[in-house]
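Before relying on records like the one below, remember that each one covers exactly one chain. Contacts with other chains, cofactors or solvent are not represented anywhere in the record.
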Amino acid sequence: MRFPTLPISPVILVILGLAVPGHPADAQTIVGRLLDGDAMQPVPHGFIELLDTAAFQVAATRSDERGDFTVSAPGPGEYLIRAEAFLYHSIEDGPVALNAGETTRVEFFILPKPEELDPLVIAAKRTDFQLRTAGFYRRQERGMGQFITRDDIEDIRPHDLSSLLAWGVLGVMLRPNRVGAMIPAFPAGRSSTESTRIGWCYPMYFLNGLPFDFDLDEFSFPVHPNDLAAVEVYHTRGETPAQFRDPRASCGTILLWTRWKEEPRP
């Protein structure tokens, strides 16, 4: 276990049984469930990485609405598993031995980060009219995608959009474009949420509900994170709300919502 200082149970990763044979065409696979270590409830939309013994990522995926995930290794051997989710501690455990063509079933437990919020702050939490009319809060309640609020932006204090997405969204990586600038990308493996070092794809952007096109070699936006009220991130076309599905989107969609002009910047 890599994090002995966390106040958690010694049991983070539970192997539910012996490895079972997979189909002949299958790789060595881990089928698991990501669980809240306190509430013992599934954790949806968590980011799960498979690492080799040198701690390099070899594959990654996301947990679904039930906390279930499947990730395959490129070859037999011993691997570490790292899991993280929004408002949860990042946890790494293992190794897990994977034999050729076999499937291993596991449960992986992560702990929520403690909330230290003043009750008055909670009572005074703003409900932005623009976001409400745009359907932001309704989509947030449904739980599809990931959401960055104004409070999150103020906590992260990003210097540009790339750093905001890299720090605020699980699974977003910064990749160099042809001129060396670092731009946000999603892993593109067998699906847009799974990576086996096959490549990366770049999401479609909407600004205040309208498609926003940009040159990947320039990657410049007319707004600074300080001017944003909220951000929505959808990693797949299936996650993306119907009204924001664009045929040009290669893998996912990011919605940017600006603040009211009369609202002062911090």
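The two ends are 41 Å apart (CA to CA).
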